[in-house]
């Protein structure tokens, strides 16, 4: 891709268990703080896993009616907050009606979450289909006055990377002038915590929440569910340059593949995930040795972390020993549909601040996960090229390459 | 020529219109805005027909499907896979490898009845009463993930849409995706109940509904054409419904199924929610290039391509 048609990130909006602004998230991430707590808002006394990474309620974005905003479900508030913050950050908020502004929103279980929340509030949407009038993606477009094409998509944990890839393509095709892309998830609820718990995928370290999410550690016993989201403003380099926009990074490479193996169990064959990584690096024109940082998918499950290490070994070969790898899920928990998007923010933070976010709770590294870890404390390092892996239920493997501009 | 497809806007929801009379692009269409249909099928099943499909969703393709593949799948996923297998069989693609293809699944309101039953059981039995299969098999990506397993697809797979605008979102996504990489083809699978079933508090439903699924095997458009072609234009991006502009119906699953089931499918044009349109038409005589079809042991020949070609309706 030539310099003019490159696609740049010029705005970020986020809400995570470590804070509801980019700055708060960055500060807490690099301080190595955990956002994992005992679940609030519903009874977990009989749940096998009782710990989660929850967000604080997001404020009403300036310009929207606070009373109307308060009546929305949290899942509806979250993308409005993230999109509004991203547009403001990019300098597009006041001028958003002047351009074809598209939206690609990763959201995996929109209706399950919506129905559960509504029923708990005394609503009838689940039992009265005629009340399901508007999908989330269209609600966001309407409330924010976005006029370009819009789509919701889901590849579970990989959704955010697919959203960025799709938005980049819409920009390349000239379908949009500016595009919001990212993913949001508010799936932390009594039912979903029970569902994943019964799947035996979650950590049961209930008495020690902050130390429960332990990717790559020998004592890991599953992931910790989290919630949150991140949305990015994407635009073509030539357009961003013309308006002297501040630039976070170039969306340089995207790769994807499917295991075709099982809906929930990762494939023992590293080849599909390896192919996704290689595709992303080739798309970015980045040789493996030029990568400065890898934000791993690593959720903290015994099988999944080792499987990803095998993939990294295959892709990077001997160069892997020199490439720092960390899992920010150790601090945020696993944000499911929103994971890839929030971890892309973590990569931008590493680039902007010249510091690598750590894997906390890495006290006893698993010898099967022999990597150049960033254990427990952030490390200073100039990051020009960051890679973020996200692999999801349904057998989706994705890899994103971000390049400093 | 304007489309005359039967459009079933059963939702009765917000209506919107295309911004201008559709002027589909010709051979000089931008990459990613036109694609050819290599195969397609529409399947409609009443609830009592789903268990049989769960056991045997359709004619065998390649390796036999695992008996556990559909055990926990949603009914929409079962019918969606049946449509895919039907399309493969009726267009003589049974020997084709789809390894390098991708798949997009666009179910509509997936899991409503199951969710009602799950909530009832959760309230009665607590956390341990909730099935671990609820979320993986009722999330937006469940349909695409299952089809990727069934066809051994190793390209991209993800869910799109989720509501009544899902078909429009799926085609916007598919048209863009086809141009991004050496992707030989893409399955687009759309499903939904008509009407939407109304569950009671225990997750039972007495709604006389039909599950509809449309499966389309789309490949990048070629100059050869000759079969059915989809043209996608996302439109100028202005707010829809400008006064004085001619209206066509919105794109719906049922409208698309009806158009494909016509004796001579196409042309038909539908509006997209944020402006623009999708058009189904018959391209110029010829065949898709055989390079789109790769069998497990080599490249499928022209004869097979002709057999698989357009016009053979599901």
DSSP strand content of chain A: 15-25%
Q: Structural class of the secondary structure composition of chain A? A: alpha/beta
SSE-based structural type of chain B: alpha+beta
- Largest interface, per-chain counts? A-B, 79 and 80 residues
Main sheet: strands, sense, barrel of chain A: 11 strands, mixed
Quote the average pLDDT of chain A. 97
The geometry of chain A reads as: globular
Number of helices of chain A: 12
Catalogue the unreliable spans of chain B.
1-32, 237-247, 286-314
Structure, explained:
The complex is a heterodimer of chains A (405) and B (314). Chain A has helices spanning 22-30, 66-71, 74-90, 110-120, 136-144, 159-173, 190-198, 237-242, 271-284, 302-316, 329-332, 339-353; strands at 7-15, 36-38, 51-53, 101-106, 150-154, 178-185, 225-226, 228-236, 249-258, 293-295, 324-326, 355-356, 372-373, 379-380, 385-392, 396-403. Chain A has 405 residues and is an alpha/beta fold. Chain A starts with 6 loop residues before the first strand and ends with a strand. The longest helix of chain A is centred in the N-terminal third of the chain and has 17 residues, at 74-90. In chain A, a hairpin with a 3-residue loop joins β15 and β16 (396-403). In chain A, α3 (74-90) packs across α5 and α6 (159-173) crosses α12 (339-353). By secondary structure, chain B is of the alpha+beta class. Chain B has helices spanning 50-55, 75-90, 112-125, 134-138, 142-150, 166-178, 253-261, 302-308; strands at residues 34-45, 102-106, 157-160, 186-194, 210-220, 228-233, 268-271, 277-282, 294-295, 298-299. Chain B has an 8-stranded mixed β-sheet with strand order 3-2-4-5-1-6-8-7, sandwiched between helices. At the A-B interface, α4, α5, β5, α6 and α7 of A face α3, α4, α5, β3 and α6 of B.
SSE inventory with pairings:
The complex is a heterodimer of chains A (405) and B (314).
Chain A: E1 7-15, H1 22-30, E2 36-38, E3 51-53, H2 66-71, H3 74-90, E4 101-106, H4 110-120, H5 136-144, E5 150-154, H6 159-173, E6 178-185, H7 190-198, E7 225-226, E8 228-236, H8 237-242, E9 249-258, H9 271-284, E10 293-295, H10 302-316, E11 324-326, H11 329-332, H12 339-353, E12 355-356, E13 372-373, E14 379-380, E15 385-392, E16 396-403
Helix pairs in contact in A: 3-5, 6-12, 9-10
Chain B: E1 34-45, H1 50-55, H2 75-90, E2 102-106, H3 112-125, H4 134-138, H5 142-150, E3 157-160, H6 166-178, E4 186-194, E5 210-220, E6 228-233, H7 253-261, E7 268-271, E8 277-282, E9 294-295, E10 298-299, H8 302-308
Parallel strand pairs in B: 2-3, 2-4
Antiparallel strand pairs in B: 1-5, 1-6, 4-5, 6-8, 7-8, 9-10
Helix pairs in contact in B: 2-5
């Amino acid at each position: 891709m030539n310099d003019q048609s490159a696609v740049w990130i010029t705005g970020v909006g986020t809400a995570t268990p470590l804070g509801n602004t980019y700055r708060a998230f960055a500060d807490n991430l690099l301080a190595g703080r955990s956002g994992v707590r005992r679940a609030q808002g519903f009874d977990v006394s009989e749940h096998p896993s009782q710990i989660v990474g929850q967000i604080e309620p997001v404020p009403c974005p300036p310009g929207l009616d606070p009373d109307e905003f308060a009546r929305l479900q949290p899942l509806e508030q979250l993308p409005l907050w993230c999109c509004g913050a991203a547009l403001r950050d990019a300098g597009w908020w006041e001028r958003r009606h002047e351009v074809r502004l598209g939206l690609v929103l990763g959201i995996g279980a929109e209706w399950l979450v919506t129905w559960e929340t509504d029923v708990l509030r005394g609503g009838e949407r689940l039992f009265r289909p005629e009340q399901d009038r508007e999908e989330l993606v269209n609600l966001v477009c309407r409330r924010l006055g976005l006029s370009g094409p819009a789509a919701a998509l889901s590849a579970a944990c990989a959704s955010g990377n697919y959203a960025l890839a799709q938005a980049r393509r819409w920009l390349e095709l000239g379908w949009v002038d500016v595009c919001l892309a990212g993913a949001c998830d508010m799936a932390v609820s009594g039912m979903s915590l029970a569902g994943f718990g019964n799947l035996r995928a979650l950590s049961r370290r209930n008495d020690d929440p902050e130390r429960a999410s332990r990717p790559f550690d020998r004592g890991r016993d599953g992931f910790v569910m989290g919630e949150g989201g991140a949305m990015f403003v994407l635009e073509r380099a030539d357009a961003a340059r013309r308006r002297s926009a501040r630039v976070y990074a170039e969306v340089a490479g995207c790769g994807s593949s499917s295991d075709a193996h099982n809906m929930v169990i990762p494939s023992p064959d590293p080849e599909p995930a390896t192919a996704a990584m290689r595709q992303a690096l080739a798309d970015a024109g980045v040789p493996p040795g030029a990568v400065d940082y890898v934000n791993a998918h690593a959720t903290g499950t015994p099988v999944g972390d080792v499987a990803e290490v095998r993939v990294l070994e295959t892709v990077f070969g001997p160069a892997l020993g020199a490439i720092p790898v960390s899992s920010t899920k150790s601090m945020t928990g696993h944000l499911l549909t929103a994971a890839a998007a929030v971890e892309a923010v973590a990569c931008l933070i590493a680039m902007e601040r010249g510091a690598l976010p750590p894997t906390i709770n890495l006290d006893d590294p698993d010898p099967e996960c022999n990597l150049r870890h960033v254990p427990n404390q952030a490390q200073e390092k100039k990051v020009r090229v960051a890679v973020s892996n996200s692999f999801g239920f349904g057998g989706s493997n994705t890899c994103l390459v971000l390049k400093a501009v | 020529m304007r489309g005359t497809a039967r459009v079933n806007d059963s939702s009765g929801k917000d209506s919107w219109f295309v911004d201008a009379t559709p002027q589909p692009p010709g051979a000089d269409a931008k990459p990613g805005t036109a694609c050819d249909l290599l195969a397609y099928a529409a399947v409609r099943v009443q609830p009592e027909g789903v268990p049989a499909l769960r056991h045997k969703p359709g004619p065998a393709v390649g390796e036999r499907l695992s008996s556990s593949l559909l055990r926990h799948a949603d009914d929409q996923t079962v019918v969606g896979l049946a449509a895919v297998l039907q399309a493969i069989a009726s267009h003589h693609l049974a020997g084709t490898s789809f390894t390098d293809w991708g798949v997009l699944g666009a179910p509509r309101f997936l899991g409503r009845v199951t969710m009602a039953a799950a909530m009832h059981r959760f309230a009665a039995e607590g956390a341990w009463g909730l099935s671990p299969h609820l979320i993986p098999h009722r999330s937006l990506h469940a349909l695409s993930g299952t089809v990727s397993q069934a066809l051994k697809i190793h390209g991209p797979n993800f869910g799109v849409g989720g509501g009544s605008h899902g078909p429009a979102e799926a085609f916007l996504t598919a048209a863009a995706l086809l141009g991004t990489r050496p992707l030989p083809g893409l399955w687009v699978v759309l499903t939904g109940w008509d009407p939407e079933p109304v569950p009671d508090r225990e997750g039972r439903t007495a709604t006389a509904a039909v599950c509809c699924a449309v499966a389309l095997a789309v490949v990048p458009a070629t100059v050869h054409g000759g079969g059915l072609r989809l043209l996608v234009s996302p439109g100028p991006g202005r707010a829809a419904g400008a006064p004085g502009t001619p209206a066509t119906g919105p794109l719906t699953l049922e409208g698309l199924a009806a158009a494909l089931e016509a004796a001579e499918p196409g042309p038909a044009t539908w509006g997209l929610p944020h402006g623009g349109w999708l058009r189904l038409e018959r391209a110029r005589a010829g065949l898709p290039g055989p390079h789109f079809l790769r069998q497990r042991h080599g490249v499928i020949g022209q004869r097979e391509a002709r057999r698989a070609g357009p016009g053979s309706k599901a």
